[in-house]
Write a structure and sequence with these properties.
By secondary structure, the chain is α/β, with parallel strands linked by helices. Strand 8 and strand 9 form a beta hairpin. Strands 1, 4, 5, 6, 7, 10 and 11 form a seven-stranded mixed sheet that branches. Strands 2-3 form a two-stranded antiparallel ribbon. It has a two-stranded antiparallel sheet with strand order 8-9. It has two domains: about 70 residues, no CATH class; about 240 residues, von Willebrand factor, type A domain (Rossmann fold, 3-Layer(aba) Sandwich).
Length: about 350
């Protein structure tokens, strides 16, 4: 496209210049008393090609007019800014999570059902969940010890792969339910997420737009821990209530989800008595941080809990479109200038006329 297309009206001058040149092409003369001896002189190639100078001047003006119209190429750019949640999924993978639970007509372990539902919650299933495509999501697992399985990342396919690889603890000395440690580790990850985003944006800015400040593409709207357990806190370095208070101090909301029966039963995995679900503790943790507690005795209830969280933690995506233009007039201007210089040099040398 052209920034000043009206400049093409100047092309109307060119036919006028050609007409004037043809009409007033009077040559300078030198007086001779007798020109008979010049009548039979052959016409040289310089004389034949001298009119080229005029057409070079016309072409020079035409190129200059195109440059004046400022040709430029536009590239449509869409800048997407997202305000989403920084979210840690904290999953209990102690031995009691091996207890059976029905899911879509199949008998699976509680942990396998949790993995299925959480994966649908993150990537979307086309029915109940739209997917958390624009959020930063991390994964923490805990039994006797808490571990970071995946730090906060963008891209739901990455986190879903880690979720699929969660397994029950295999050693008896690793079994237990350290709810306080799980909360503390998840909260520590979330507390540092602003710095993580700042560092990512700084790298992108230095790599692409040096010296040009740019708004971050992702802003944290809320910090959330989704804590899932089927037991009570029975080990760990940190108290769950103190960990919840620390999370609240850092502006982190905790949604607690209790799975399974409130009654004690036999845990076939280690042949031990399965601890009861401490609903009072889970309620207190959620209340301290501004979240909520929900109980899920089956897969459908678990899906309903995650649907509720999905509706509460909404993501806002803002799209700003604009066109970035690259100026294309310099080659036209340079060609015009080069042609003008060539015409001047030719008229002063090989096509020089006397007088």
């Amino acid at each position: 496209m052209f920034y000043w297309p009206w400049a093409f009206l100047l092309f109307l001058i060119l036919p006028v210049l050609v007409f004037m040149h043809a009409r007033h092409n009077a040559n300078a003369a030198i007086r001779f008393s007798n020109i008979d001896r010049f009548k039979n002189c052959p016409i040289s190639w310089r004389q034949r090609f001298r009119p080229v100078l005029f057409w070079m001047r016309i072409l020079c003006i035409a190129l200059l007019i195109v440059a004046l119209a400022r040709p430029r190429k536009g590239t449509k750019i869409e800048n997407i800014s997202t305000e989403g949640a920084a979210m840690i999924i904290a999953v209990d993978h102690s031995g009691s999570m091996g207890e059976p639970m029905s899911y879509n007509g199949q008998e699976l372990s509680r942990l396998e059902v949790v993995k299925q539902v959480v994966a649908d919650f993150i990537k979307g299933d086309g029915k109940d969940y739209k997917g958390r495509n624009s959020d930063m999501i991390g994964l923490v697992t805990y039994a006797r010890f808490a571990d970071t399985q995946c730090p906060l990342v963008h891209g739901n396919s990455i986190i879903v792969d880690f979720i699929k690889n969660i397994h029950l603890v295999e050693q008896r000395q690793e079994d237990g339910t350290a709810i306080g440690d799980g909360i503390t580790l998840a909260a520590a990850r979330l507390q540092k997420c602003e710095k993580q985003i700042f560092d990512e944006n700084a790298k992108l800015q230095s790599a692409s737009d040096k010296g040009k400040k740019k708004d971050p593409n992702f802003k944290i709207k809320s910090k959330v821990i989704i804590l899932l357990t089927d037991g009570m806190n029975n080990t760990g370095q940190y108290s769950p209530i103190e960990a919840a208070k620390l999370a609240a101090q850092w502006g982190i909301k905790i949604y607690t989800v209790g799975i399974g029966s409130e009654q004690q039963g036999n845990n076939g995995f280690f042949n031990m008595m399965m601890p009861s679900l401490d609903e009072d503790l889970l309620n207190n943790i959620a209340s301290i941080t501004g979240g909520f507690y929900a109980r899920a005795d089956n897969a459908d209830q678990l899906r309903d809990v995650y649907k509720k969280i999905d509706k509460l933690e909404k993501t806002e995506v803002k799209s700003i479109g604009y066109v970035d233009y690259a100026e294309k007039f310099p080659p036209w201007a340079k060609a015009s200038l080069g042609l003008l210089l060539l015409e001047i040099m030719a008229s002063a040398t090989i096509f020089r006329k006397i007088p």
